[in-house]
């Protein structure tokens, strides 16, 4: 199976192909959604998953030599004689084939045949056990260390609190991976609280090597969202800047009026910018930067920006960027409640 372990953290179903449009791999979410083991999909023509030939015209675009992703609305897919699943999909060109990103349009009950095959489910339960134990050990060690610290050691207590909070967040991500559930309802939150959590992670990761600058608009209203998911998305963007050799990273928040996000125009939106002075985005990756498995570093997984984009979409927002050597800005736009919603 051509995959990376971290790719299975994505809850969005993904499948990718060889140059001749045969499936080279998929993540767990894609296999579970179709109700089939990952390995059974290998080598299958991608078009064979669409009963009504919904993919064949899109795959025929190969002759057009275009890199623009194609959106397919309510695409029906199924494996063999299984139940048909419907999704809104993005079909993107890769150097070595195609990437299909599926956004299911229906929710399935617990007894739906799309649940994981028993053997794979058992393996994942074993993985959960192996990962939860060290996470619990880290959490306990942080709490014990916190009790031993001098009460006046503010920095020490802040770091142990950070370890405690991050192990809890990782445990929640693991639960979400192994037992997918409907997303938590969004609630009003202060985005600057989210950014402060990210900056604590950055300070622990980069130390004094990177200058972290806050440029906040204190008049921002609350955002409707999931704080843990927003932390994950923004942290991926900040970490990406650090790994690009930045010596300074700036987090900037502003209010925008009359903003178009996708097909909708919002009276108010949050504009969050993560700016850095690193190497910038390599020109050869410019058109494919947000695709999973695309990375400008040999040791990179190519998942951080894909995860950040997914988090933005979960919040009805969008992620974009502009870049040149020494100046790169990733911009997250998120709708804000208007006067009628307040």
UniProtKB/TrEMBL annotation:
PROSITE patterns: HIS_KIN
Reactions listed under catalytic activity: ATP + protein L-histidine = ADP + protein N-phospho-L-histidine
EC number(s) on file: 2.7.13.3
Pfam families reported in the protein's UniProt record: HATPase_c, HisKA
Catalytic EC class: transferase
Keyword annotations: ATP-binding, Kinase, Nucleotide-binding, Phosphoprotein, Transferase, Two-component regulatory system
InterPro entries found in the cross-reference section: HATPase_C_sf, HATPase_dom, His_kinase_dom, HisK_dim/P_dom, HisK_dim/P_sf, PAS-like_dom_sf, Sig_transdc_His_kin-like_C
Domain Histidine kinase stretches: 126-338
Record carries keyword Transferase: yes
Highest taxon of the lineage: Bacteria
PANTHER family from the UniProt entry: SENSOR HISTIDINE KINASE, SENSORY HISTIDINE KINASE_PHOSPHATASE NTRB
Protein name: histidine kinase
Organism name: Cognatilysobacter xinjiangensis
